[in-house]
Structures are given as structure tokens and as C-alpha cells.
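User: Could you check the structure of this?
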Amino acid sequence: MKITINDRVLEAAEGQTVLQIAQANKIVIPVLCHHRALSPSGSCRMCLVEVEGLRGQLAACTLQSADGMVVHTETPALLESRRLLLELLLRNYVESDTAADDTHVSELHYWVAHYGVPMPIASKPRYPVDSDPNPFIHVDLNKCILCTRCVRACAEIQGRFVWGVGFRGDQAKIVAGADTTMLEARCESCGACVAVCPTGALADRMSMGKGTADKVVATTCTYCGVGCRLNLIVKGNRIIRVTSNPDAPVNGIALCVKGRYGYDFVHHPERLKAPRARRYLLEGRAKPKPSVADPQWDWIDVGWDTALNLAARRLREARDTFGADSVGVLASAKCLNEENYLMNKFARQVIGTNGIDHCARL
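Assistant: Sure, the predicted C-alpha cells are below.
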């Protein structure tokens, strides 16, 4: 099919929405309730467009394309509608003065600045700030615009159904479970709701007050063999936040609690940065009696060749002296599946033992 958006003739596939076609062709249409990883809801109306031959303004996120359709995304009437919508969304919005999540600019703030809508004068919050004791997720419902992204992310990405909309009319708000705490509502603290929140109502507690990042480093999570892709948000050569990438082929925006929030080990002062060996092993001495004061028990930083050769020699000695079953092999959940397969071969074919176990237990 052919569809025209802002005087550009574009190809479209059957079933695509106008918003999908626009995003695929780098045409910006503002959204707040819509997220590419979630089902569309059409509730915020920020993505309104005009279609020649059709009355009124239509939501691009739910508008199915048709052959020959002519769409306009930036008319004076649309700009006025978006400004009005933002003003309405901001009527109950209260910016908290405490523990601001300043690691990034929220989508709401971006569009408010883009369309020149004044932020409301600070008023008394409707809800308690930091209203949930979850150790990883900071909740401030005074910033919520009821876009329901968190509700859909929890249901469609993680399958936990923690979030929902409670109460009615102007008392409606996002609630966990039957208006309980997140953990009582069976939250796994995966952070998917934080990843899609466009306002900062849900934020990463560990990143609060850490400031603006210097760079973003794309990497692969080290906690298991699934291979989830994630982005490290870095400031001053320290990780201040972890975000997921919708383009990740394995996980999309989904991450587990360890992948999203278990990054503080990287900067732990006791983290090993090089292989180590006991002094008595390096000097070829007999194993001394354990003693804190004995320098033979000191750890010495060594190179990888030295460490691997020493480990191989000691494993061979143990197997040849006491038998293959005297050696036990522990594989790691932080290795690739292929590496753990090799560990299996190493245990059974090289050492000759069935004593192998795995630590993939959360």
C-alpha cells in the first residue's frame, strides 16, 4: 500500500498503524501512553493526526493505515490540541522536591518543553512521596498521568499483573494489587514498569540524585546464559543506572531484578580484578597450617597463565592421587550455555567424574 504522511509518499504493509509507519520512516509523532513494546491504548491522545476525507482528529497509535491515505501530523489545530492535552495532564501533576530522579529527562518534560507549555506552580501533593517500601523502585503517584504503561508492561512483559487502575473519576490512581504494597502484590522488582514510565512516577531508587550521565555503554548481562542486552548509564566512570533496549533480540525491554539492579558489585571495593594464588603454591611449598599471621597464606596477584597452569596441575594431582570422584565441579550461571556445556565435558571426560552442579538458582 501507499500512504502519504506530511507530503511524503511511503510504503505501508497491511495491518500497520499510522504511528508504526511514521516511526519506521523517522517521522516524529508525540506519544505518552504508547510504547512500541506494549499494546496500544490510545488514551493520552498526544498522537492525534488529521486524515484527509475523515472528520476530526484521530489517534495514530490505533489508526489502521489504508491505501491512498493522506495524513498530516503537524497542523496548527493539532499543535493547539497537544498543548491543551498537556495542560490538562499537568493539572494534577506535582513535581516532588525530594530525591529527584535526575539521571534522564522524562518524556513528559520533553514534550512540555517542546510545545512550550508552562509547568504548574508547585502545590500540595495528593499522595505521599516515596509511597512504597520496594527496595528498588521509587513510587511518586503525584507525577502519574494514568497512561497505564506500567499496567500493560507488568501484564504483557513480565506476566505478574501487579499494577492496575483503582477507584473512579478524579480519584482514579494506579494501585498495586488491591491497593497494597508492590511486594505484597507479588512484584518481582524486575523494573519493567520503571522502564516504560514516561513521567518519573516510577523511578529506579538506586539512581536517585546521581545526576546526568556522561555516556551509555551497551553490553550483555553477566548473570546467566540467556544473553540479555542492556545499557549501562555511566557517570564519572561509575554505573549509575541500567536500562533495557527495545531493540535487544533476546529480551527487548525485559530484564530480571539482577540484570537491572544488581550492578553495584562492579564497583565493590572487595571485587577481584586479577587472578590470585596463595604464596605457598607459587613457591612450591607444602601446605602450611592455617594461620592469619603466616605469610605463606598471603594472596598474590598473578597472571592468567600462571593461575590456570597452577589450577590444572593441582586438579591433576588430586585426580591421580585420590581418584576422579575426589574432584567436584561447580559450573556458573554467569557463563554462556556453551561454556557450561564445555564444563560438563571437562568434568565427565577430562576429570572423569559425575560430580558437577550448577548455581542457576535465584
